[in-house]
Design goal:
191 residues; mainly alpha; rod-shaped
Length: 191
């Protein structure tokens, strides 16, 4: 065998220790027979008290259940009451109040933004309707509708023809009179 080295690290492998040896701690040498007897008596008294307290608790729980039944308190009503109490507590919390105020403010700002957007769109449609391009288009549509009405209305009396022919001739007539500016150009406002 090699001689054992001195230092922080040992060269010998660890040996397993028997569990029975570890559990057999000699407590008897530090406790006298009188102290052992007192501890056993105290242990018996504590076990009796625990048993008595369990019986008292069982009795109180039975009485508690009887009273609830007589009062008509069901588990569902208790759950509802607890939920309502929790809801009320939550609503009174500062976090809930701050969140509610923030959401209310955000809702008001969003509503104002949509109102402004609606006003802007209405104004743009009004500007477009007043533009020269839209007026020209509107006049052509009125002219086409009038032409179709007169030709369909005179069709039975003489020379108007059927509806398809009238529609085709009105379309040809309106395509010849198409204005040079179209609706995609910038809107023009009359002065």
């Amino acid at each position: 065998m090699e001689p054992r080295q001195q230092g922080l690290l040992e060269t010998e492998p660890l040996q397993e220790v028997d569990e029975d040896m570890v559990s057999e701690v000699d407590l008897n040498s530090s406790v006298t027979d009188e102290e052992r007897e007192e501890m056993n008596n105290e242990l018996v008294k504590l076990e009796e008290e625990i048993s008595t307290l369990r019986q008292v608790l069982d009795s109180k729980e039975k009485r508690h259940l009887e009273l609830k039944q007589k009062l008509g308190i069901t588990p569902l009503s208790e759950l509802r009451q607890n939920f309502n109490r929790s809801w009320t507590d939550m609503q009174s919390s500062t976090v809930y109040k701050k969140t509610s105020e923030t959401l209310t403010s955000a809702g008001q700002k969003t509503s104002a933004a949509f109102t402004n957007l609606g006003s802007s769109i209405s104004r743009k449609f009004g500007d477009m309707r007043n533009s020269q391009s839209f007026r020209s288009f509107e006049e052509k549509m009125e002219s086409t509708v009038t032409t179709i009405k007169t030709k369909v209305g005179t069709g039975a009396g003489g020379g108007g023809g059927n509806f398809e022919e009238v529609l085709s001739s009105a379309a040809n007539a309106s395509s010849q009179d198409t204005p040079t500016n179209n609706l995609t150009e910038s809107t023009e406002c009359p002065s």
